[in-house]
């Protein structure tokens, strides 16, 4: 079982006086930062905020910390060190990747995207139609938001070169079977790009075991600084045209980073691994095995919330009603604007959000009134049972 007191002791936000009495339920928009990340970021700015990789000590220490972040994250994710690259955001990383595919693909070839995605992992790919690339849409079920693999099979043929889909949607919440989908796409001769932004906060995955060619997520949602992290496997990374400086084309982790990275934030990302290793040591498992411990805690807390909303009048639960098949990102379509309800929830000590959350295509496909959007309640492993009870009580009062 997850030691929730130990978990929360690693997050300065929970001892911050200005946040006392409030329960944070907008983690899908960005998590609290763990102390290990804050300490590393502070140290870098205080003592190592110089151009890295120069021959003097402060510069060498800064470069070493950046290298440490990349190598330790790669080990946690089950990939090679140079297969991990950093960018200003996942949106930017996806855009750069799409430009590489724009040069690589030929007119008449096809890619597959979904309408379950956050716009960041579908919009850049859809623009490739302007170059003569066929864009096929893997559509969600209107009632459930589910992506049926049989529908994907009908879209795959010899002309498909790339399939892009989310590990889980930031409004539907259902966890898609990445391993199964990836195997199907690879068998059809297509590369696979997975948007892991909405899943990674609930447990770092072994990308090597799952098999996608690209896996993207955002460190500011995994208890770290505001960076985008992209795993791109060597086979694909060396095939795609270089998007960085020509003289960096031989370094895989620089090929898709045309802009200079934020040195301090890259270095601070090592703090995310510090945190996972501290959790693992405390619970007697490896840092990688903490994935299951975190998920078990989340599932136990999520089911009472789903039960409280799934049969409520004038509330439509988006996505599955079984906690085991989804992330604790719960979108509710109401009879009034989600932002309005979120403001009322704040009066009850609940920090949450309302709107479309850049998942306009998904919500429209499910018939959600976009003038109202949804109320979204999202939590992670540092959330307590008492906080879930508090959010249910606030919903009772507001709805």
Automatic annotation (TrEMBL):
Which is one Pfam family of this protein? Aminotran_5
**Swiss-Prot/TrEMBL keywords:** Pyridoxal phosphate
| Aminotransferase class V domain boundaries | 24-390
Please name the InterPro entries in this protein's record. Answer: Aminotrans_V_dom, PyrdxlP-dep_Trfase, PyrdxlP-dep_Trfase_major, PyrdxlP-dep_Trfase_small
The protein's superkingdom reads: Bacteria
Is Iron one of the keywords?
no
Q: Which residues cross the membrane?
A: none
What name does this protein carry?
A: Cysteine desulfurase
Gene source species: Marivita lacus
